[in-house]
Amino acid sequence: MPHKLGQVFLKDKNAISKILSFADLSDTDTVVEIGCGDGDLSEDLAKSVKNLIIIELDERCIEVTKERLSDCSNVTYIHEDVLKVDLSEIVSVPVKIVANIPYYISAKIVKWIIKYYKQVDFAQLMFQKEFGQKLIAVPSTKAYTSLTVYSQYFLDISHKYHVAKTCFKPVPKVDSSVLHLSPRQDIEAIEESFFDMVRAGFHNRRKLFLNTLKKNPYIKFDLKLSEASLFVSNPNVRAETLSIKELKALYQEIKQFIIKS
Description:
Layout: E1 9-10, H1 13-23, E2 30-34, H2 40-48, E3 51-56, H3 59-68, E4 75-79, H4 87-90, E5 95-100, H5 106-115, E6 120-128, H6 129-135, H7 146-154, E7 155-163, E8 168-169, E9 176-183, H8 192-201, H9 209-214, H10 229-233, H11 244-254
Parallel strand pairs: 2-3, 2-5, 3-4, 5-6
Antiparallel strand pairs: 1-8, 6-9, 7-9
Helix pairs in contact: 1-2, 7-8
């Protein structure tokens, strides 16, 4: 089957076995697979868990997988764009998500998982290697971005292993990584303006944090912003050097200077 929608299919049996091994699934689990491709991973998932829910946009992929899994009575198919699926409406208990996702919507899928974090036990996902590095990055590194901060605020993320491009068909130009994402147990409610501040800070990485906060497309501050203790003690600080804890502390101090639109 030709690949569509920017997706390549995992075909290497050893790579598929490794995914199942690291996911540590049991016959009592309900698993969601995002994108079934030709059913290579789906087949092994269906044999390993109590219920498998496949969310797939490409009708031809569903048809091929249904035929391949015709003897499996524990599989439910949802023909829809995963980003339009309300996970809270289709599951009653936290599920495990195991998938080789379409790379072009990786960030949107991470945000979708965060949106429905109460319905997710964990997600073990295949990402483009470079994207995966952003999710696990630390401050003062090139891969550390506003997406890193957003993702790590809600999720505990760990790298499991790399997957060579030769494990896929058609063979892509990039290598891949499998990451484990689980909702944090200590998520603190915080205003959306915190993430606006973070996006502003990374809007122009070469500029000083204070300067990007004074002029950016995401959030407006009163000029008294410069009186914040961080900027007084370190006026040359850049957002990319600050941990989530430090960003939160800064936000609590400067949110009083936000100009409401």
